[in-house]
Amino acid sequence: MTDSSGPSTTLDDALKSFEGHRRELCAYAYRMLGSSFEAEDAVQEAFTRAWKSYSSFEGRASLRSWLYKITTNVCLDMLDGPQRRARPMDLNGPSRPDSPLPAPQPDYVWIEPIPDGLAFGADPAEHASTKDTLRLAFVAACQHLPATQRAILIMREVLRFSANETAEALTMSPASVNSALQRARATMSKVQPTVTDDYDESDENQRKLINDFVSAFEAYDMDTLTTLLKADVALSMPPFDLWISGPDNVAAFMLGTGSACEGSKLIRLEGANGHVAFGHYKPTEEPGVYSPWSITILELEGDTIAGLNFFLDTDKLFPLFDLPLELRDPVTQS
């Protein structure tokens, strides 16, 4: 990368070349860290480190591999501790629908959603091949792995790096990488659900399922809503560690503790974690005015909804998804 006249590429050019890898690095850091905010911070820190050491980059590896190595080190530094992020169903059994809401837990406890636009590139084929590994269930399962095993599993099985490339990134031997990968696979086989979200935008039945859900939820028609839910559907509401299982219990919860959602509006998003997602606004005391309530993510299984995820940290999440902090009904002319 250098000759007697100095670097063949200016630092400005280097920064531009870094940007071409931002989304895939953000997706990688998100799988490692379980937080879109921490993932963005990790990539920014990786770019800063890469910029500072760019003069020593001699091209022995590809720029992409070099950036992954730096990002991996940043993530491992950030994961230097016992804390792992989780989903409510990873922490305890289901609650009764009439259970009072517990005290909210800190945001570092929870797997957070990531907008599809932050994680996926423009190539639809890349989107299709990687979206399953950004699903909430997969990211939560990865959190059960020690940090280095997590990096190895993602680099080998998601990014398709060779054992030698992974070993280089982690300063390990290929044999150690392969051994750690086997241990990671064994853990994942125990904690990862066998069925993942299979939403297909081109599937007419699934499009109807989504439309029916929106209609039933906005009408607060629990009789219709429950017909759309899988028998073991799970409803969760981070930052609360309470979760509800089963259509009848979901309906009872929504009509009781969750009754403030009646009259809500759902704004369809591009997507989150490869799932169907909405900006969820609930009514205020002022008629026709709605305030942020949650980023609502649906997990689908065939022609049913298997998961209802309400992420309530709207102060952080609505700006992340480019959502306004107020919604108003259109003014009709008399």
UniProtKB/TrEMBL annotation:
> What region holds the RNA polymerase sigma-70 region domain?
18-80
Q: Which Pfam families match?
A: Sigma70_r2 (PF04542), Sigma70_r4_2 (PF08281)
Alphabetical UniProt keywords: DNA-binding, Sigma factor, Transcription, Transcription regulation
Coiled-coil residues are none
Q: Where is the RNA polymerase sigma factor 70 region 4 type domain?
A: 137-188
Quaternary organization: Interacts transiently with the RNA polymerase catalytic core formed by RpoA, RpoB, RpoC and RpoZ (2 alpha, 1 beta, 1 beta' and 1 omega subunit) to form the RNA polymerase holoenzyme that can initiate transcription.
Family stated for the protein in its record: Belongs to the sigma-70 factor family. ECF subfamily.
Write down what this protein is called: Sigma-70 family RNA polymerase sigma factor
Q: Which organism is it from?
A: Nocardia aurea
